[in-house]
């Protein structure tokens, strides 16, 4: 019985970390959806506020991806990527710092692990925003004409 408890605890913590990492890596659409949800909920929309929040978050993510695929300027693409990835890096840093403070005593190692977590979240948000199709005419941020 104790072994089953330990296994379920490890699986539960792993699933929570996976969900948290997924949500932090797309923090901009999540926050847009949450802001729309709370606004609609406080105006009395009821259950329709959930639909509005999901639609707002999806719209923001679609706008980012459309802006990246439609833009032909490398600086515009870099700006769009920074607008998406920098908030995710900041959220990833503080999320990893909070987790590290629960189990690590040394302040130096807490911040080292927080920087590693921020890098992982930033890389994940960059990969999530990249278009799914392959580009034969150049790299992702720069197209050869």
TrEMBL record:
Keywords: Membrane, Transmembrane, Transmembrane helix. The chain crosses the membrane at residues 7-40, 46-64, 76-96, 108-127. It comes from the Bacteria. This is Uncharacterized protein.
